[in-house]
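Today's session is about reading a structure prediction critically. Students often jump straight to the picture, but the first step is always the sequence itself: look for stretches that repeat, for charged clusters, for runs of hydrophobic residues. Only then move on to the predicted structure, which in these notes is written as discrete structure tokens rather than atom positions. Here is the chain we will use throughout the hour.
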Amino acid sequence: MRTWSFPIGRLLGADFRLHFTFLILLLYVWLAEAQQGVDFVARGAELAALLLASVIAHEMAHLVVAHFSELAPRAVLLFPFGAINLVLQPAAEEGRAPRWRREIRVAAAGPLFSAMLSAIAACLVAVEGGRLLQRPLVASADLLRSFFWINAALAVFNLLPAYPLDGGRILRAVFLRFMPAEVAGTRAVAIAQGFSIALMLGGFWSSWMLLGGVFLFVAVQFEEQNLMFQAVLETVRLEEVMLTEFSVLSPADTLQDALTKALHTLQDDFPVVRGADMVGTISRHSITRALRSNGNGYVQSVMNKVYQAANRQESLGNVFRRITGNQLIPVVEDDRLVGIVTFQNIMRSMALLAESRRLRRESERIG
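Below is the predicted structure for this chain, in token form.
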């Protein structure tokens, strides 16, 4: 997610990131607005901002229902038609409704909310005496009418049974009733690839269909990697990915000494050890922030004394549900620190593991 996107904020516990396809859409809007007259840069930006606001509103509806359904995502990657969500399956499912039912509720929330926004916009257009069918349907000259068509298009387009569109999420949820999650995801992705190609072929009739097909194709590739990532999470043990060679700090180290040590390692987070006992954790960011704010001091005064330990046989999925931001999780065996796990370390290791397993499957298929 981080390679082709940039962060725009955090809402309801989820990190929101904007995919680069929004920039492609902005260029397309500018080209369309340039044919309408002057000030196309500002007017095109207004129209793109209206679409972004509509997509965020669509995803917020998903997010609210997801929180009540205990399927809240850790990250949301925004595309011009919706988003890809990184949702981790809770470790225990006792006392909850079947996951497929909850996923259908979450998926349906977005199109319903977009349809509601378009209905409100239609009423406002009627009150003002405007015409919804006046062409061009979407243009910066009439943002209210554009708001109606953008949200109507989001509602209708997301009903297509093409994962990760909401219709595709519903289709995958139905598949979950009869088959394992990995198989259900693979089938939903295969169907979505067919839809994306069909939309791109539709570009002979409409440039918007071509654009939607390209965006959907890119999103499907991301979703395929996302599904592979989540499938691997539950099968990988910490001992396979934990860092066994790492630097430690002492609570008696000065912050300046800690920063000097940080300059000579790739670590962003450090365990703080007194003798044989681990007493806290500290990040490179915390060190530099404390030095700027209060000058040189001791690691003990800045370190985080609250942390969660894990054992080497735990699944990576269990740890990933607990890890947040730049948090470090120590791996302990017989009260001895044997490794550490950080978010950056997980991301690097998972990419290599996923690629390794993909290549192994391809070689087995050929053999």
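Discussion point for the tutorial: The mean pLDDT is 81.
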